[in-house]
Amino acid sequence: MFGEYFSRSGMTAAISMAKELGVRKLAVPSAGNAAGALAAYAARAGMEAHIFMPKDTPRANVVECEQTGAHVTPMDGLITDCGAEVARRKDAEGWFDVSTLKEPYRVEGKKTLGYELGEQLDWQLPDVIIYPTGGGTGLIGMWKAFDEMQQLGWIGSHRPRMVTVQATGCAPIVRAFERGERFAAEFENAHTTASGLRVPKAVGDFLILDAIRASSGTAVAVSDEELLAATREIGAAEGVFCAPEGGACLPALRMLMAAGKVGRDERVVLFNTGAGVKYMESFGG
Length: 285
Known about the structure:
Elements: H1 3-20, E1 25-29, H2 33-45, E2 48-54, H3 59-67, E3 71-75, H4 79-93, E4 96-97, H5 106-110, H6 112-120, E5 128-132, H7 137-151, E6 161-167, H8 172-179, H9 205-214, E7 218-222, H10 224-238, H11 244-247, H12 249-258, E8 268-270
Parallel strand pairs: 1-2, 1-4, 2-3, 5-6, 5-8, 6-7
């Protein structure tokens, strides 16, 4: 699975509902695929898209937004700075903020990750799900979907152990989990080549941490060197050029197995949330 699907699964729901409710102008801070998804669907819906991106966002993501008609504003700083700019200007500009968990519909679209996982595995959920986590809506959406699937009678009470993976240069959820905290403080001087993981303060931090703990899961961080090496390894073994974020899951799995937290006989799903071709800067291109 690639990032276009991941982001579009949430944005289709958000933009469809915004259109139905009469919204005309949308705004979002993004360093990647969410921006591309918003730009494309807003164009199709005849709506304005205003996107604020850190200046070091991979160039492919910027070009995609520009070529699908969005108003793109590059900014110094991180995605949190971009989000603050949207919040500061949205009322005066008449924008509707579709930032992560700032509206109720993106997470509803993200639930399809959980539904499709259940369907593809014949309604027997895996033992472990390893998910690269920035804003975390995919993990939150899946966790919500599992409860709904049980209420529908499609699955039982078994839940996968949910594992958050972050980069060592930006690991607010990992740090909060290790400290036993319910909320994750902003991660200072956040840096990682995996731009989707460069989220120093997630709005849904407590929802992510609740799901991890309720499932007896965990949170781990890997270095940029490890995730980039894993991207090459996955490509050579599977023919899938995954994004650095997706690459982070493989060293995380190895760490968990070495620590005895994941067994060799368990079913484990690793999520790739982007296409590597959009991250040429990460690979020296």
